[in-house]
Amino acid sequence: MLLFGLIFQAFTLIKKPTVIYLIGDSTVADYSLEENYMAKKYPITGWGQVFQQFFSKETLKKLNHLIDNDTVLVVDKAKGGRSTKTFLAEGRWTEITKKLKKGDLVLIQFGHNDAAKDKPERYIDTAGYKKLLRLYVKETRGKKAIPILITPVTRNYPWKGKVLGSAHGDYPEAVKDVANKMHVPIIDLTKLSAEFFTEMGQDFVSKNYFMNLDSGKYEAYPKGLKDNTHFQTKGAKEVARLVFDELIKINKMK
Question: How far apart are CA 237 and CA 167, in angstroms?
Fold first, then answer.
């Protein structure tokens, strides 16, 4: 009984990892969780799919004010086609709030589907978008977890000369407005990704980062593909790096 008690005590003293929940759309999602990923989907990769690799005991020292732990578990709950409205309506957010605990982080990146007027089941105007972002922030804080808002990552258009602009209209500014009024940390991924892709150049980015694929190269896309929204693995890793670097900057401000 004494030995059992000591073992039980040891287990209770083991610190649970800080969980970083990712909520959002296909640009964030983890496609490797889908059945037969390599044959049916690869190389499409959401930035959340490769986010875990940025967290180690060494790198977590750079996040010491934001994360009071030496272990982090990234839980990617983002799903393709979801907006702030449908993510909530389908019960995906409720599933997270049931598990959310003090000190966890919730990274929130929507906007691609919220703006889709041609798909009314997803679409929500900027006023509704802001209302739901406020809900996600409020309920995250209600669990004593930390919300971080992220503006939508840029698409690979529009290019004006050699500079990549934004295809997201007023939605990035809506995120900034919520962050400002609610004093929420924010990552302006629209701006950061556009600047980074501009630096790398349109031809390089189109070929290496986005899902513009030659025919016969990948099993899942025998006829090739032209997709300037979703990422290949290299592109996803670069976007994930941008997000991680911004977390370090947020840490310095705490």
Answer: 21
Domain, as residue range, for 105: 17-253
Q: Are 109 and 179 in contact (CB under 8 A)?
A: no
| 218 φ, ψ (degrees, to nearest 5) | -125, 140
Number of domains in the chain: 1
In a domain, 85, yes or no: yes
**Residue whose entry in the numeric block shows the structure tokens 């406020």:** 134
Q: Is the peptide bond before 152 cis (omega within 30 degrees of 0)?
A: no
At residue 239's C-alpha, the angle toward residues 73 and 175, to 5°, is 85
Q: 33-51: per-residue pLDDT in tens? A: 999 999 999 999 999 999 9
* Residue 87's CATH number: 3.40.50.1110
Phi, psi of 219 (to 5 degrees): -55, -40
Strands (DSSP E) along the chain, which ranges?
18-24, 72-76, 105-109, 146-150, 159-160, 163-164, 186-187
- The string of pLDDT tens digits covering residues 174-215 is 999 999 999 999 999 999 999 999 999 999 999 999 999 999
Domain assignment present for 1: no
Per-residue model confidence (pLDDT) at position 252:
92
Query: Is-cis flag, bond preceding 185, omega within 30?
Result: no
- Give 75's strand partners: 21
d(CA 139, CA 135): 6
pLDDT given at position 14: 64
Closest CA to 247 of 49, 74, 31: 74
Phi, psi of 210 (to 5 degrees): -100, 165
- The pLDDT of residue 254: 75
Look at residue 185 and tell me if it is in a domain: yes
Q: Determine the residue type at 176.
A: K
For residues 101 and 175, what is the distance between their CA atoms, to the nearest angstrom?
24
